[in-house]
Write a structure and sequence with these properties.
The protein is mainly α and about 120 residues long. It contains six helices and no strands. The longest helix is centred in the middle third of the chain and has 29 residues.
């Protein structure tokens, strides 16, 4: 198993437009994560959207260390929630199979992509 990615590699791989895992998060998840950055100051999704700063990489890139930590934590949470939904769907489709051993896969997948390709292309 690959070690957990450092925060910056996780952020670049999943949020940067040339990130090698930039399609792991859906649009809603990306918006929620973007609001944790503080490159232009702490702003809500609504404020970022109103100022046309959602998806503006500078807001992520110029975030403080604490802002980057919060963004990475939010990405990990979004990936984990996607895995939980997948397990629930699997359990619904296959009710007789024990799903307690199904491990979180998405963050591991991002780590494997970064290990092979780097955080961005």
């Amino acid at each position: 198993m690959t070690d957990q990615l450092n925060n910056w590699d996780l952020i670049v791989a999943t949020l940067y437009w040339k990130g090698n895992a930039n399609r792991m998060l859906d649009d809603g998840a990306r918006r929620r994560v973007w609001a944790h950055a503080d490159g232009y100051g702490k702003m809500s999704i609504v404020e970022l959207q109103r100022l046309e700063l959602l998806e503006d990489w500078s807001h992520i890139r110029d975030s403080s260390d604490e802002g980057q930590k919060q963004v990475a934590q939010a990405i990990r949470q979004e990936l984990a929630e996607m895995d939980i939904r997948d397990r629930a769907e699997f359990a619904r489709k296959f009710p007789g199979i024990d799903t307690s051993d199904l491990r979180s896969k998405r963050e591991q997948t991002v780590a494997e992509i970064v290990a092979k390709l780097g955080a961005r292309s």
